[in-house]
Amino acid sequence: MKKIILLLFISYPHSLLYAQFANNNPFQSFIVYDSRHLSVAPVFSQGIDSCKRFYFSQFTGMDSILAYAVSHHDTGIYLRIYFSFVVTSAGIIEDAHFEKIGAALFPAAFYSKKLAYFEPVHNFLEQRVQQMLQAMPFWKPGIKDGIPVNARMRDFIQCRILENLPGQQ
After folding, report:
1. pLDDT tens for the 169 residues of the chain, in order
2. b/e for 124-150, b at 16 or more Cβ within 10 A?
3. 74-85 as b/e: b if 16+ CB within 10 A
4. CA dihedral in degrees (20, 147, 96, 77; nearest 10)?
5. 32 — alpha (psi -120 to 50), left (phi > 0) or beta?
């Protein structure tokens, strides 16, 4: 009788663990999904306009980027700073990375041409993006099959560099 009670006592916690993970993948917390492939993508808790304002207010490298682009005679374009980050299932920002700087001719252009002359300052831009996203408030996490999951987001900051026409100095 003691052996049966001991066996039940030992197996009971294992059955609870199995019951918790029977419907879910126990390794779900380690999986990072692409936000484009979720039923509900992560959303900044204060709205998309507030998110863009936050990017502009917290990104400290904008003046350096603009000066660098103008020194390479890139004017009359829309400059985009691309970055990515992970929104965890708890809504916390992790794993922030600078991806590239691109140029587009129109503000709503789907594609932008990568500007290769920014490669020497990649580490500087990586630090600025990480600094910006560390200060970011919580997000509403992405949802897959009704469960909050980790999701990689890709976003960009866009600004316009105007041409300096003759006589407008």
Report:
1. 555 554 445 554 544 333 334 345 555 567 889 888 889 999 998 888 899 999 999 999 888 898 888 888 888 889 999 999 999 999 999 999 999 999 998 888 888 899 999 999 999 999 999 999 999 999 999 999 889 999 999 999 999 888 765 555 5
2. ebeebbbebbeebeebebbbbeeebbb
3. eeebbbbbbbbb
4. 170
5. beta
151 with 141: CB under 8 angstroms? yes
- CB 80, CB 103: distance < 8 Å: yes
Tell whether pTM > 0.85. Answer: no
Closest CA to 86 of 70, 99, 97, 100: 97
Determine contact, residues 31/150, Cβ cutoff 8 Å: yes
Decide if 120 contacts 150 (C-beta within 8 A). no
Tokens found for residue 137: 């408030």
